């Protein structure tokens, strides 16, 4: 069952990428904008998508892999259902953002850039979310949590778990 | 193409205008340390930062591999500031390169050994912290093995694979200290598209890419 769902995923990704590529001319300088579009549509950059982009631009697939691994902004593994982004911009850094990041790492049992085994959470650091007055800041999905403390991490996790329990049974394709 | 004369270390040499200084010097038996340059490559990366020279009229040393020669050019290869830059560049490279020459297949044919001898620098540098990668050796390929730890990231193999052989299997991936030469997706080289030309191994200046039958 798992395998069949992953092949449909692959087909879906191929179609999504094909649609994205229609908006670009096959010029090398479009590589980064294409990868950005793929990531915002798919959530990450799967290896089959890199190959697809490479053949579109007529460059070796390794070159696309090189660019995708060079930039921090590109994800190579799917994000969790609830992507957690810990801000480590200047203000958040000064206000102890790294302590918040440590707490998330400890609570989720993953390193930054990682995804929990159940695919529920992924953890990333970002450089400035744009609301420095609320430092230190954490984004969970698109929701902003300001003036974070390590103890607030558990509260957020608890809230997500309760919400999930409330929703469980209704088929769970929540966004 | 005009023939011109220039002076390198008091020696008058002839060259074709526009040729890169590094090759003019090497062709005239004047050694300038270098790792990343390949004569066939028109636009070098100049990424190894070893081929420094002083040119009269220039305020700071320049890299010889991407410096076109001109008539009346006066070059000095061994000035104090040049040697200092070269020694530091070598130390930086050696801080990421495990020095285990006795057990390395490239022993006595290694460019790093040659450069260290030329600069009278020890191969075991002590000034900088050792940040060797400690990655597994890839011996999946039938022709050669690849030790990413010994790689100095000169990019020669990548250039011959892509531009000379038009294969394009090898590439840089990741960034900074994590940067490696690898095939798509970090796949073992034995599973990657490869035409078995062996050029990458031939141009490797160190013992990173090495033919299996030459090992031991």
What does this protein look like?
- The complex is a heterodimer of chains A (175) and B (216).
- Chain A is built from 7 helices and 4 strands, in the order ααααβααβββα.
- By secondary structure, chain A is of the alpha+beta class.
- Chain A folds into 2 domains: 2-70; 82-167, 3-Layer(aba) Sandwich (Glutaredoxin), CATH 3.40.30.
- In chain A, strands 2-1-3-4 form a 4-stranded mixed sheet, with helices on one face.
- In chain A, a hairpin with a 2-residue loop joins β3 and β4 (143-145).
- In chain A, α1 (2-21) packs parallel to α3, α2 runs antiparallel to α3 and α6 packs across α7 (150-167).
- By secondary structure, chain B is α+β, with helices and mostly antiparallel strands.
- Chain B has 2 domains: 1-132, Ubiquitin-like (UB roll) (Roll); 133-216, Alpha-Beta Plaits (2-Layer Sandwich).
- Helix content of chain B is 21%, strand content 15%.
- Chain B has helices at 21-27, 80-94, 111-119, 156-164, 199-203, and strands at 3-8, 11-16, 52-55, 62-63, 74-76, 144-146, 171-173, 180-182, 209-211.
- Chain B has a 5-stranded mixed sheet with strand order 2-1-5-3-4, with helices on both faces.
- In chain B, α2 (80-94) packs antiparallel against α3 (111-119).
- Chain B is globular and about 50 Å long.
- Chains A and B meet through α3 and α4 of A and β7 of B.
Do you know the CATH architecture of the largest domain in chain B? Roll
Overall 3D shape of chain B: globular
How many domains would you count in the coordinates of chain B? 2
CATH architecture of the largest domain in chain A: 3-Layer(aba) Sandwich
Q: What's the total number of strands of chain A?
A: 4
Task: Say what the CATH topology of the largest domain in chain A is.
Answer: Glutaredoxin
Reading off the top of the CATH hierarchy, the class of the largest domain in chain A is best stated as: Alpha Beta
Number of helices of chain B: 5
Low-pLDDT segments of chain B: none
Specify which chain pair forms the largest interface.
Answer: A-B, 13 and 15 residues
Structural domain count of chain A: 2
| Topology-level CATH name of the largest domain in chain B | Ubiquitin-like (UB roll)
Distance between the termini of chain A: 23 Å
The CATH C-level class name of the largest domain in chain B: Alpha Beta
Beta-strand portion of chain A reads 5-15%
Biggest beta sheet attributes of chain B: 5 strands, mixed
Strand order of the largest sheet of chain B: 2-1-5-3-4
Strand content of chain B: 15-25%
Percent helix of chain B, as a range, is 10-25%
Oligomer: heterodimer
